[in-house]
Amino acid sequence: MIVLFNCTCAVPTTMDSFHPVPVKVNPDLQKERDAALFNPVELTYLKDGGKDKTERRRRCELLAINDPDLQHKDISFMARNERYSNAVRKAVIIARKIKEHRLTNMEEKQLYISAATQYDTYGFGLHYGMFLPALSAQCDEEQRNYWLPLAENLKILGTYAQTELGHGTFIRGLETTAIYDPKTEEFVLHTPTLSALKWWPGNMGKTATHAVVLAQLYTNGKSYGLHPFIVQLRSLENHQPLPGITLGDIGPKLGFHSFDNGFLGFDHVRIPRRNMLMKYSQVSPDGFYIKPIHAKLTYSTMVEARVTLVSDIAYSLSQAVTIAVRYSAVRRQTEQIKGVKEPQILDYRTQQLKLFPYLAAAYAFTFTSFVITGRYIEVQNEMNDGNMESLSELHALSAGLKAFTSYVGNEGIEVCRLSCGGHGYSQASGFPELYTLTAPISTFEGENTVMLLQTARYLMKCATTAKRGLELPRFVLYLSQRQKGQCPARNESDLLDHGLLSDAFEHRARRLVIEAAQKMQSNIGKGNPQHVAWNNCHMYLLKAASAHCHFYVVQTFVKYINDTEMSDAVRDILTSLCQFYALHGIWQNAGDFLQDGYMNGNQLDMVQSLVGKLLDKIRINAVALVDAFDFRDEILCSKLGKYDGNVYEAMYEWAKNSPLNKTEVHDSYNKYLRPLMQSSKAKL
Ligand SMILES: CCCCCCCCCCC/C=C/C(=O)SCCNC(=O)CCNC(=O)[C@H](O)C(C)(C)COP(=O)(O)OP(=O)(O)OC[C@H]1O[C@@H](n2cnc3c(N)ncnc32)[C@H](O)[C@@H]1OP(=O)(O)O
Ligand SMILES: Cc1cc2nc3c(=O)[nH]c(=O)nc-3n(C[C@H](O)[C@H](O)[C@H](O)COP(=O)(O)OP(=O)(O)OC[C@H]3O[C@@H](n4cnc5c(N)ncnc54)[C@H](O)[C@@H]3O)c2cc1C
Question: Is the Cβ–Cβ distance between 626 and 577 less than 8 Å?
């Protein structure tokens, strides 16, 4: 370890940190760092997967942060047009620099991109995020050889065009048609109605030259459902839309201001037969259809994206708690004893109760993202060998976790913003961008309620399988085990046991899944058709899916601590954080644990008391816990969350840059105010 800080206060911090040496660290923040009971760098290494990986990440980030070509004024001071243009400019530079820096590894590229884009969207987000993955997953060998080099070398720029104006969730109901014409060996793409216009695809409004378009396939007069097609949208010479194609931007949104989400219509546009992506299903030249080995393989791009979003949410929530915890350490408010300095707001129990559940969740989701990413890779390998057995499991897991984590993540970011009082509302805080960037994750890649219902659908099947005594996949194996009676905790120390806490969430999940299955059965027993019974049982199904995901996260957190090598000090704080995550979850959902008598009032009292006690353990380490996320100021983009804690100086400097401050007297004074105030009527 090296001594890095040459600060004006107390003892220099020994931290293997890559933050630049600040001239002066806010003394309150320094005091927090000095008091921490573990070394945050150790936790950084753990989170990154080892010291080497941390160093590599930091190198990639610095390459972007220190690059003069990637600098620009704060996006908060840009209008939409300028933001879009800036995002495209940067995307082009990023592409060039990735080559120059020889960043060939996917992880390194992503790290570089995320540091270079900071808290804005990436101008080629859909190209890399969905277009390339869709091509990789859905092209056959020959198509891959043709399209991938073009896409990878940015000779074409792509998007993923699935959603329509009238249809987003229910994709079987999409209206865009692709009718095969064997005479010319072409598909004819057509938008039959207004509601069939493709609507929302990112980078489609102004940027993309190509799209993977999801359309209803017809051949030999028969409909075969949704299939992916690669379609050229714009000329590669002058970027004009091609004949028969209508394109545009859908207008400003809640956020994503630099993104050109677009609309797209086809008027009998012809594409070659081989533009249907044919890895899983094919149409022969004479129009014969060959079906895929699994009906839902067309949806695989969405599964991949949902897995990635769990990591994105963990990352955004980590940023939000970093800002809020650091700010809460430097912000002082409300004199308690006359003449004595106002306390740090982080000392208020209510502030801790706002922030620490999300601090714990940020870690829980980070570890969960490791596990689901690992599982995704395993299943992908199985599928590459032609084994589709685990696809349903992966779909249920990724859909549920994407929904569960993004609900909590969105809520957490908003709570963090509120916890910063008025300054949280300023763009200087970073929250408006962070919130609006993360908010649509609850909607895109599958609306959250719908995704939880998909998980519930899978769990209902598993409940039936379990009842029949048949084998279940590992992550739902608990459904085939018997309920364990009552929670055995006799005192507070019992309730700190990770095994006991995990069992409590397991019990709750199993009970709610079985209850939902019974409600479904009794609804169907009353003569209701399946879809009516399903709708009647929505409230049980949603709760069951959510409880299942909650259990999965708690179990993963526990397992991570048990299975990972770490120092005693880090183990100690992660243990407290995990206990807090679980106990707070029980406290917040007390009804579920009391409803069937699994826990009693006395145990709940102990849970609540422990939540209070753990606040102290986390309080002393809170700043170190957020430091361990290791966000540089240039990446956090928040004046409230600055590493040196010099918040007020930073806010004042930032405000001076507001375009309204360019002139001392604004134009509107001469145009409107002066005539008003100097008119005879306005005289007092
Ligand atoms: C922090 C910063 C982040 C910055 C990010 C910047 C970049 C921004 C990028 C944003 C990009 C956004 C892109 C998009 O949004 S693309 C569009 C995404 N759209 C969706 O996700 C649509 C959601 N709808 C669906 O997935 C399906 O229609 C739905 C699953 C809801 C229903 O499908 P369907 O009606 O066909 O299915 P059924 O309900 O009848 O079920 C039939 C069986 O199929 C199983 N199933 C469903 N989906 C899958 C799947 N993906 N894989 C495997 N199996 C699946 C389902 O469980 C049923 O199985 P059983 O019959 O066995 O029960
Ligand atoms: C920022 C952003 C970027 C996007 N980028 C893309 C993109 O690049 N490409 C693309 O193709 N699409 C994109 N989308 C579209 C996105 O995928 C859809 O908006 C999303 O899938 C939700 O579908 P929807 O809008 O039809 O919602 P709806 O389904 O209309 O949802 C509205 C309400 O109906 C409820 N509901 C719907 N169906 C059911 C059901 N079966 N049971 C119970 N409740 C139900 C939902 O829970 C919700 O409360 C993007 C969207 C956003 C916001």
Answer: no
Closest ligand by atom to 445 CA: 1
Catalytic annotation, pick one of 304, 433, 445, 506? 445
CATH number assigned to the domain covering 28-123: 1.10.540.10
Task: Specify burial of residue 34 (Cβ count, 10 A radius: 0-12, 13-18, 19+).
Answer: middle
450 CB-side CA count, 13 A? 10
**Does domain 132-292 bear CATH number 2.40.110.10?**
yes
Residues sharing a CB contact under 8 Å with residue 270, sequence separation 6 or more, in sequence order: 181, 184, 186, 187, 188, 189
- At residue 429, the 3 state secondary structure works out as helix
Buried-state track 471-500, b at ≥16 Cβ within 10 A, e below 16:
ebbebbebbbeeeeeebebeeeeebbebee
Q: Report CA(382)–ligand 2 centroid distance (Å).
A: 30
Q: Are 440 and 255 in contact (CB under 8 A)?
A: yes
Domain regions of the chain by residue span: 28-123, 132-292, 301-470+497-625
Retrieve residue 347's tokens.
Answer: 């000392």
Most distant CA pair in the chain: distance in Å? 90
378 is catalytic: no
Q: Note the pLDDT tens digit of each residue in 133-154.
A: 999 999 999 999 999 999 999 9
Distance from the alpha carbon of residue 75 to the mean position of ligand 2, in angstroms: 28
Rg (CA), the chain: 27
Angle between helices 601-627 and 40-48 (to 10 degrees): 90
The first and second tokens of residue 228, run together, are: 């992916």
Structure-block tokens of residue 635: 């990446």
Domain spanning 301-470+497-625: CATH superfamily = Butyryl-CoA Dehydrogenase, subunit A, domain 3 (1.20.140.10)
Q: What is the pLDDT of residue 679?
A: 84
pTM of this prediction? 0.96
20-32 in b/e form (b: 16+ CB < 10 A) is eebeebbebbbeb
- As for the ipTM of the complex, it is 0.98
Q: What angle do CA 120, 404, 549 make, to 5 degrees?
A: 145
